[in-house]
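Example 349.
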Amino acid sequence: MQPDRTAELTRLLRTRILIMDGAMGTMVQQHKLSEADFRGAKSCGLHDHARDLRGDNDLLVLTQPDVIREIHDEYLKAGADVIETNTFSATSIAQADYGLEARAKDINFAAARIARECCDAWTARTPDKPRFVAGALGPTNRTASISPDVNDPGARNVTFDALAAAYTEAVEGLAEGGADLILVETVFDTLNAKAALFAIESYFDRIGRRLPVIVSGTITDASGRTLSGQTPEAFWNAVRHVRPLAVGLNCALGAALMRPYIEEIARVADTFVSCYPNAGLPNPMSDTGYDETPAQTSRLIQDFAQSGFVNIVGGCCGTTPEHIRAIADAVRSLPPRRVPEQESAETVA
Ligand SMILES: [Zn+2]
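Predicted structure in complex with zinc ion:
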């Protein structure tokens, strides 16, 4: 496990805006991998796996590690300070779709290892620009607080305890594999995120060590709320007890429509703010599924930086190394948001 780099990250975040990487899925798509590619070499033991595995991008850390390594390298070359592990759907709950729930911990461990190796190689080349591995925990494909059945509002397809157990295994793999921080991302249901945060905190308590945590929600429509119904301010209040290194928003609407919501987070959060939107709204007709060019996305994010909203910026779905390079260029000379002095969580509680 890595040492706790909170102090180093805090110092850096006060000095400049840190750059996160962009989409993994968009880049994997370009490799046009076949079912056989997803299964990998015979030694991966998935040759006669009963279900189709094509589309299980997280599995590639085991079966095509060089593809993932190459994508990480492209983002690091583009200027990313922080790269995300390829683990968005690597919980046992999400991997159950492929019959690979038993591989969840291995995937998280391998993903963190690969990202660690890439970061260390780049940091060795440019020691004045340390690189960090964010161990990513996605929301899973189930929601703990919303019914999947319109005729039965009380129905749930997952429990808090099941989510917490799945996240525990994932966070163990990420931390043991060498993540510098844990990123709970694309939070559409705050109860799912709370299960992740509970798993993380319990794990830290158990081993007697900690890593910094970032929590990133997603506003899914023009109501300005998460899928489970919270405004950005409510979302912050629901997660601030874990004292995250940063809180922010990612994915969903793209930067243009995200502006009022990231502004709201920036106003209320007494911690650093992160923001990594999609390359605009989805467009099924486009190659990557998204239309925004690097110039467009970077101009929007530059405005966030000029407005003093952000400390960490990057891209989500549809963004590429070119987007990240443009974003890094656009914010290079701009100061990071200053964290406002506010009442501490303890005194408010
Ligand atoms: Zn996204």
